[in-house]
TrEMBL record, chains A, B, C, D:
Residues 192-353 form the S-adenosyl-L-homocysteine hydrolase NAD binding domain. Its cofactor is NAD(+). Substrate binds at D132, E157, K187, D191. This is Adenosylhomocysteinase. The lineage of its organism: Archaea, Methanobacteriati, Methanobacteriota, Stenosarchaea group, Halobacteria. Keywords: Cytoplasm, Hydrolase, NAD, One-carbon metabolism. One of its GO terms (biological process) is S-adenosylmethionine cycle. Its EC number is 3.13.2.1. May play a key role in the regulation of the intracellular concentration of adenosylhomocysteine.
Amino acid sequence: MGTYPPISEQLDDVESARAEGHRKMDWARQHMPIMTTIQEEFVADKPLEGQRIGMAMHVEAKTAVLVETLAEGGAEVAVTGCNPLSTHDDVSAALDEHPNITSYAKRGVDDEGYYEAIESVIDLEPTITVDDGMDMVAAIHEDHPELIETVVGGCEETTTGVHRLRAMDEDGALDYPVFAVNDTPMKRLFDNVHGTGESSLATIAMTTNLSWAGKNVVVGGYGYCGKGVAKKAAGQNANVIVTEVEPRRALEAHMEGYDVMPMAEAAEVGDVFITTTGNRDVITKEHFEVMKDGVLLANAGHFDVEVNLNDLADLAVAERDARDGVHEYEMEDGRRLNVIAEGRLVNLAAPIALGHPVEVMDQSFGVQSVCVREMVENGEKYDAGVHEVPDELDKEIAEIKLDADGVEFDSLSDDQKEYMGSWQHGT
Amino acid sequence: MGTYPPISEQLDDVESARAEGHRKMDWARQHMPIMTTIQEEFVADKPLEGQRIGMAMHVEAKTAVLVETLAEGGAEVAVTGCNPLSTHDDVSAALDEHPNITSYAKRGVDDEGYYEAIESVIDLEPTITVDDGMDMVAAIHEDHPELIETVVGGCEETTTGVHRLRAMDEDGALDYPVFAVNDTPMKRLFDNVHGTGESSLATIAMTTNLSWAGKNVVVGGYGYCGKGVAKKAAGQNANVIVTEVEPRRALEAHMEGYDVMPMAEAAEVGDVFITTTGNRDVITKEHFEVMKDGVLLANAGHFDVEVNLNDLADLAVAERDARDGVHEYEMEDGRRLNVIAEGRLVNLAAPIALGHPVEVMDQSFGVQSVCVREMVENGEKYDAGVHEVPDELDKEIAEIKLDADGVEFDSLSDDQKEYMGSWQHGT
Amino acid sequence: MGTYPPISEQLDDVESARAEGHRKMDWARQHMPIMTTIQEEFVADKPLEGQRIGMAMHVEAKTAVLVETLAEGGAEVAVTGCNPLSTHDDVSAALDEHPNITSYAKRGVDDEGYYEAIESVIDLEPTITVDDGMDMVAAIHEDHPELIETVVGGCEETTTGVHRLRAMDEDGALDYPVFAVNDTPMKRLFDNVHGTGESSLATIAMTTNLSWAGKNVVVGGYGYCGKGVAKKAAGQNANVIVTEVEPRRALEAHMEGYDVMPMAEAAEVGDVFITTTGNRDVITKEHFEVMKDGVLLANAGHFDVEVNLNDLADLAVAERDARDGVHEYEMEDGRRLNVIAEGRLVNLAAPIALGHPVEVMDQSFGVQSVCVREMVENGEKYDAGVHEVPDELDKEIAEIKLDADGVEFDSLSDDQKEYMGSWQHGT
Amino acid sequence: MGTYPPISEQLDDVESARAEGHRKMDWARQHMPIMTTIQEEFVADKPLEGQRIGMAMHVEAKTAVLVETLAEGGAEVAVTGCNPLSTHDDVSAALDEHPNITSYAKRGVDDEGYYEAIESVIDLEPTITVDDGMDMVAAIHEDHPELIETVVGGCEETTTGVHRLRAMDEDGALDYPVFAVNDTPMKRLFDNVHGTGESSLATIAMTTNLSWAGKNVVVGGYGYCGKGVAKKAAGQNANVIVTEVEPRRALEAHMEGYDVMPMAEAAEVGDVFITTTGNRDVITKEHFEVMKDGVLLANAGHFDVEVNLNDLADLAVAERDARDGVHEYEMEDGRRLNVIAEGRLVNLAAPIALGHPVEVMDQSFGVQSVCVREMVENGEKYDAGVHEVPDELDKEIAEIKLDADGVEFDSLSDDQKEYMGSWQHGT
């Protein structure tokens, strides 16, 4: 039994928190035309009636619109945070006000509370799980296998989560179907590339008051997030350096015109380092030892293990907060290395961080919403394991978005369809 | 029986043609470090000994290095062109000089000769086919099914060819295994994006002496080729307009910052139109009727059906060659619409065209070479049908290229490998 | 006589304010290698000994390093804000602690206090004025002409200030020499282009949580600031639209690949509007009437007159703060127009604004510093009127910066110098 | 007395040359809306009646439209080439057919003929000179000072020419007024940046069949031409490296995100080198010695002295034409260095070169045309020496161009004009 209380029982002034939470959600909803369209449909059709949804997400204004939309679709929802620093208490409180929603998300919760809150969500006995880092999936499989029988399916938002779900699936250890929402073109291109790229850079700039022009920006990893960070940094006139472990990605970065080199070499010339690999120990002791004075270190990958802070603390002779959101480690030789947002996901964990841009999450949560609907309506079609999001769902979201932005596009004529389907043509 | 003679029997001055062909091949080989590396390996190991390879390719200097490499690997090779306008006779003659190679490719061959040449190649009774537009596969399946039994497998280079092979495969009509070389990350990103993009624009610029800055460049289709053309045109300060039929691609172009609109609307504002769809009738009568005076029309897709020249000729009151490689159609109201390279693949068919850049083909043909080797060594692993290129082959080429360009990259530590393979982590 | 008190007399807890101010200045100084170099020189040489410097600037951490540097050079300095919303009280208090500095800058000062503070600065009877918007020059010329005799000269930082000083000069109304610091290549390119561009966009993004990708961003004016905003917005994958009144600038934007159109037309399609003209009434009633729901309106020009807020308030049926730093005006038909930072200079006046990036101001203030030194050492060489910054000073700063960034460059050989100076060459 | 005959007396088949020349000029005129507009005005007004114009220009289709326009304005024109390799004989012959024009330009003329042709032009006793490299100005001042009295003035097209004219002016040696057409915003930005950038890269690509993506492209000099080459190369995904001798330009390139380093260092890593300095010996022995095998060397500056070919020939153990337009120098250690177009202006002198894009020259020659008109109408206003082009002429051309491209822009209201002219505003 979860013993962690809902946010409304934890705040001193719940009413004013809720008011501020609603104001934040108003702003988000105003710039989320996809979710607005889907919410209208859900209100009318109640496709999720009778479902119980357990969610572990970054609880802030945009995610709240997803939570609200699922509740408006008829589901009972319990939600908690997926990162102790990313929750907005006011938004959590506003959600908790909804008759169909209980929110346990609380900023700054300690480790014990974090896992208790997950337990509290699980008390709902979810039929659907929605994850941003597979917390719900893991908790159910590891600690509550008895619930698996009644779970219809799940949705996973992150690259890292999907990566691990696939590993679990390969081990034969994943016992219900999960949509790899992260892997859709909609999610990867728009969320990872544009969302992570833009918001990480803006957060770093507004946390440090420093500029990009002429800087050597080292991007650790050239997956979708790394591509986004590199592209947007180059768009601010940084000199981009990429590190990679996969030869084809390294070559892709090289052909894009970026410098590609091992981290050991990049460490000597970089001014700003941004990790996006999803792996641990991307930047370690050997790198800290050769870095220039005043460098910035930030992480745009899921966990705070990419920049090895233990190594850094070991090397440091002094530490201080140089600025809100900037922790300075002073080396024996006087060099100062500045870590942004404790090496956690920078666009979510920095003091001024706002997470991904609203419109980007609109797309991403649009896919989530129709994936939940699909799981409810056609769950029997999906075996236990990781599933790609069906193309038609992804296209449905793209069409809603284009329509909202007033963008028209062509359609194939019958002759063209016939031509594309045929293979009997000459030169 | 093929009655079409080798190129050496068709030229007046074979010797000087061969000399010029070799000079062209020297230049190509000098800038093809991947093929140089593979050729050294093939010379040493003779992995293709005993094979007979039938090829229909654009026969110019770069492809010639592939043909030569396969021959050096021990195979007997017969080759013909895959487009009547893309053959360089001198290169064809230089190839034909090689003891293991017979080349039937001849520039400007008529329709009858084109198909006779294919027949002559088939006389070799190929064990391997290498196609740039599935000519060999089609000829064997349609006209020489008796050969299928001895065919080990094939390789297909183009988007269009792979598309059709898949359609054929779905119809149960593809009777031997074919590698979809086009679909590898190496091929798609580097050949389609960088190769098609750069060479199409440079060819148009040098055919017309016109500039890109400030021009409305309409790109028909936002697949890999379309992305390349759009990216490179924007990089020359054009104002890029994209037309699409797939909503996710349309949205991707929109989020990139390009204008997206239906062709009917783009037709009114475009200065240059470049089609890359692989489909027919992308630009037709209704579009010609509203275009501005002096527009350029070019095609970067495989076949010459994207710009409907029949429609254009019907509308025209006069035609002339405004310039080498530029055919001008004069409309009744005096507007002049200029078609580059007869609407054929512009970077291959324009008078000054040189095809894809050498380095790009080096990568693409590197994949082809190791795919042929794989088919010979492990052909029994592949059933009849279209096959993805195995990742390891693709990575092999990427590593050779990075090494040749002096680019170093990182590798995963054991701890990192373990971390990426595991799914039991907390926050 | 100025009656406005120094900041230290206005704050409740001066000590903690000073501590925070010093922490902010430490961060700035750490990323200002040019100022660090110059400060070392000034401490050693005391080139400003005996001077009295009156300044009206945006008083925050970076400017504080300039103020401090001038004081360290031996001058007595009095400083006040040049914009009621741009002062950081803690930094102001930290400056006021310096024995050679009196700071009157206070955030949120009212109109009366604003001008009284200028009077208090003038009580110092400045020999040098340093302006960011010609407040000091105007006050001395209009209200204290008796001081002109003892003024050695001035420096002006902004485009707008220089523009007006030139108008004043043409009217024969400028009675002492002023360096147009704004007009140097160093200032225009780095401060206006990179500084205004990057910081305006990051401030808007972090104030609204919205993204740039795929947005129609209308940039009012294509001077240096407009070029910067356009370039950086395009670098974030916005679709940039430029409005201009000067045909050559309009053409320059057109040739860059941007859409150029009148504001009346841009108003209908824009998602975000950013004015950079230095003029008034760039966006007015006729434009508000046709804008889309949810647009953002921001100003990156000096004064808050570019977006006509009176017109907007007249049209609005309701107003509210949609978000910190975002004021929403609701139109009769339900459309909501969102004004960022009250239409004031967005990268200075928004709640989270930090002003220009540190490194950019390092360059700009480096030029200011050596210009003040030049005025002291060689003031007699400059007549009353606006003066270009001597090339050698500008180059001095560039060399200090390149050296600090570890960038080496070439120098001309004697033969090359001779060649460039000669005009007697054939083909 | 000039003894060099007009082109029509030098060709075997003048008629067919003229026909081809006219076809080339038709194409150019079709894409030169500015010149078309001005030519209509000149035909109507005959503003140049009675003038004799001596020109030394690159005689190809676009320049021919300028020559023709001046003749249509009523002037008698004599023209010769300004570079032995840039003349198109057919265009020269077509011009020579015009009753008001005599053309002496001949491709491949030897040194003696080159100067004799200039003498033949001078026989016309020009009242106006129009230069692309100050050949006419130099010849008149050095060899025919007696003509100076009757010269009204001149126009100079190139950066290099203007540079030398200024040196001459400073020596008191320039005896009639010359417009520095090169220095106008119209010329510098569009011709130098867009024209040189695009055409140099396209020419190199189509001469070598090589690509830009992932290449280290070293740009010698970061003036307007260098900026253009760097910008367009980066736009093709090259990794741009800039060398400079002026610290502010070096810093500008650094802040743009390019690598900046001395040529001695760049020489070791560059794949392609493009010089744009206007100076000599930018690349010399010490650089050739460390270059990689297979590098390309090209020049986009006026004279062929930037890449020191004497040094290169001294080092070479063998030379050959690797390709049309590519001369290969083999070093003792086997490395091959490839010089494009003999180190001459690559976009004019390569075998396939077409010079600047048509539209760019349209702008540049538009300025030339109205400058010649201004010199005739108001020549007495200009003293001997170098003169900036009056702003109004430059704006006239910009407005014609915007109008032709269908681009509308705003104009200042009276209130706005008043505001910009005033200096008495508060905050």
